[in-house]
Amino acid sequence: xxxxxxxxxxxxxxxxxxxxxxxxxxxxxxxxxxxxxxxxxxxxxxxxxxxxxxxxxxxxxxxxxxxxxxxxxxxxxxxxxxxxxxxxxxxxxx
Length: 94
Description:
The chain is mainly alpha-helical and 94 residues long. It contains 5 helices and 2 strands. The chain has helices at residues 17-20, 27-33, 40-53, 72-75, 85-91, and strands at 64-66, 79-81. Strands 1-2 form a two-stranded antiparallel sheet.
């Protein structure tokens, strides 16, 4: 039987400072999540809160997000996939 490998020590990961840096949303994004500078991770969370609160996920495919009157100027089209959301947020921070 081969010898067992030594288990790696578990070390607590430090939060990446770049993720926690507050970013200023532009006017279009601020209309949905507010105008206060917040970390990118919180922006994504607030976007999902808005999407779920307004039932904007497409019923036939939950990965698609339908735009309402606030989101259409942000998205630039009627529907996006959830994979495009982070890129769109990134384009609307200063």
